[in-house]
Amino acid sequence: MTSPASQRLNEAEVARLHDLHAEEMCRFLVGVVGERSLAQDLVQIAFRKLVEVGHETQADRRKAWLFQVAYREALAHRRRNATQKKVLEQLQNAPTSDKQTEQAVDTPLVRQETTETVRQAIQELSPDLQQIVRMRIYEDKTFAEIAQELDIPLGTALGRMRNAMTKLRAKLAWTQRDD
């Protein structure tokens, strides 16, 4: 019996598909979401899913599968943004009982404290995870650029970022409970 990892597409096949289709997918997605950096992120998400479950697809249909995954991710992103916008509008229009409390939450001191909490949480990550977070968030590099610069497979870069975000979420949620 073979393990799921041994059934996955090999790195060379994923890299070949990325070289063949990533730029075309990005151009397509820019038309859907209107923003190149977001389109690049959606391409990376599609390729992460290819790494995870691409072995279950037919080889001759992988391009169509990638485009479909990317398109669905773009639509999901648009839905989330629309929902977020609606919620923000509702919050903005909702009557507030205590304006001073609302203003106190958005003080420079609170923002500085939040920023420091996030920085500390990032510093508690392993050096590999810190490096991925720094390159992606602070240097605004795509996962393909990160993988190439670090000389690691694309799937490894994506996996490290997912791992880092999971650990940060847990750490920051724990910090909020302490307050």
Précis, in short:
The protein has 179 residues and is mostly helical. It has helices at 4-7, 11-33, 36-53, 62-93, 99-105, 108-123, 127-138, 143-150, 154-178.
Total number of strands: 0
Shape: globular
Distance between the termini: 49 Å
Segments where pLDDT lies below 50 for 5+ residues? none
H/E element string?
Answer: HHHHHHHHH
Total individual domains: 2
Please give the largest β-sheet.
none
Estimated helix fraction: over 70%
Structural class: mainly alpha
What does it look like?
The chain has 179 residues and is mostly helical. It folds into 2 domains: 1-94; 98-179, Winged helix-like DNA-binding domain superfamily/Winged helix DNA-binding domain (Arc Repressor Mutant, subunit A), CATH 1.10.10. The chain is built from 9 helices and no strands. Helix 2 runs antiparallel to helix 3, helix 2 crosses helix 4 and helix 3 packs across helix 4 (62-93). The N and C termini lie far apart (49 Å).
Key terms for this structure?
Arc Repressor Mutant, subunit A; globular; 179 residues; 2 domains; mainly alpha
